[in-house]
Specification:
The protein is α/β, with parallel strands linked by helices and 401 residues long. The longest helix has 20 residues. The chain is built from 9 helices and 25 strands. Belongs to the NADH dehydrogenase family.
Length: 401
């Protein structure tokens, strides 16, 4: 029997660990139940931190961890899924293509930034969506020091006033002063189509964000969008032109394109609709997890968000349940009642909320301390020690904060 997992992000990593854990619990050998993870690199990109400087350091190796729990790693990109034949088509280095059969498949392909066809966006826009994107932005920012002042050199426009946009924008004043000198006066502008900043944060938490933006001098343009970009800057839908050498797109996510090959229903974000076991009902043998899945967290109508907080726990349930079906043992329905947000606000600290109504618990330096702990400890993989790694992936013990 073979269980195949596509993706080495938070969901894919914990799916592999959890499946290996259940295999061991039931005394099944790795030869009897093969677990294979497919990814371009055996590396976890710590994506929630890509708004920070030096993004090339924000990765964690997985190969020794996978070896410790006897999960096979296949280097390559999953290009196709043939649900009828139960095969995955893989593009490997040098253009070589292979096919790998599966008895159960876990789709943990993550998400991509939604990039609309706005004139100039592809040529002049930056993002922190992927490691290469974040590295390109970082190099561009360091390159600003060698350019003449004026003409928008010290101006950054961030398109999108959600979580990612706010964290990127509030980090920029510190990053730019480190590059341009302590006397630099960087200008940062958030452009948000909604009438309020942080539209998903709610009435209780939003004033904290608004106050933080005021304190560090981040401007906002609300109720407008980006119409076009060129070398001189960005033009907004209201007609305003902002001279800026740096425009960062942070508006909207979509499930990775591979999910479109699964014969199943999807939501407006391209996520596969799954049942409580994270099974894709219309595609026999296929589970989806993380940003690839639209999954109910509870019985109150709350659904998992595209976040590592949800992906980590969802991955553990998906891997467990896919393995459980192959082993003929009961599955464990996914649930994640707890939900928190911890939003970095740059020099203004951070904001920590709890619950779907986002009750504010910590602000400022206290919240920043929690954010640092989340970013540097909690979201990193377990050590490559077999017993500890397997224990960390028990779906009922994986933290949901």
């Amino acid at each position: 029997m073979r269980l195949v997992i596509i993706g080495a992000g938070f969901a894919g990593m914990y799916a592999a660990l959890s499946a290996a854990r259940l295999r061991g619990v039931h005394g099944v050998s790795p030869e009897a139940l093969e677990i294979t993870l497919i990814a371009p690199e055996p590396t976890l990109v710590v994506r929630p931190r890509l708004y920070e400087p030096n993004p090339e350091t924000l990765t964690a190796p997985l190969l020794n961890l996978l070896k410790a729990v006897e999960v096979d790693y296949v280097k390559g990109t999953a290009e196709t899924v043939d649900a009828a034949a139960r095969e995955v088509g893989i593009a490997a280095a040098g253009g070589k293509r292979t096919r790998l059969g599966y008895d159960r498949l876990v789709v943990a392909t993550g998400s991509r930034l939604f990039r609309p066809s706005i004139p100039g966006l592809a040529e002049h826009g930056f993002s922190v969506d992927s490691l290469p994107d974040a590295v390109a932005l970082d190099r561009h920012l360091y390159g600003l020091a060698g350019r003449p002042a004026g003409n928008g050199r010290d101006t950054v426009v961030v398109a999108g006033g959600g979580f990612t946009g706010i964290e990127v924008a509030t980090e920029m004043p510190t990053r730019l002063r480190a590059i341009l000198g302590p006397d630099a006066r960087p200008r940062v502008v958030i452009v948000e189509r909604n009438s309020v900043i942080a539209p998903d944060m709610g009435e209780a938490a939003r004033p904290v964000v608004e106050d933080a933006l005021r304190r560090i001098g981040v401007e906002t343009r609300l109720g407008v969008g980006v119409s076009s970009l060129d070398q001189s800057g960005v033009t907004l839908s209201g007609g305003e032109h902002i001279a800026a050498e740096t425009v960062i797109w942070a508006a909207g996510m979509r499930a990775a394109p591979l999910t479109a090959q699964i014969p199943a229903e999807r939501d407006s974000f391209g996520r596969l609709l799954v049942d409580r076991d994270l099974r894709v009902p219309s595609a026999a043998g296929i589970f989806a997890t993380g940003d690839a899945a639209r999954a109910a967290c509870d019985d109150a109508g709350n659904y998992a968000l595209m976040s590592c907080q949800h992906a980590t726990r969802m991955g553990a349930f998906a891997g467990n349940n896919a393995a459980a079906e192959l082993l003929g043992v009961p599955t464990t329905p996914y649930h994640q009642e707890a939900y928190v947000t911890c939003l970095d606000l740059g020099e203004a600290g951070a904001l920590f909320t709890r619950g779907w109504d986002r009750t504010v618990e910590l602000v400022g330096d206290q919240a920043k301390k929690t954010k640092r702990e989340i970013n540097t400890v909690w979201i990193y993989p377990p050590l490559a020690e077999r017993a500890a790694a397997l224990a960390s992936a028990d779906p009922e013990r994986v933290t949901d904060l």
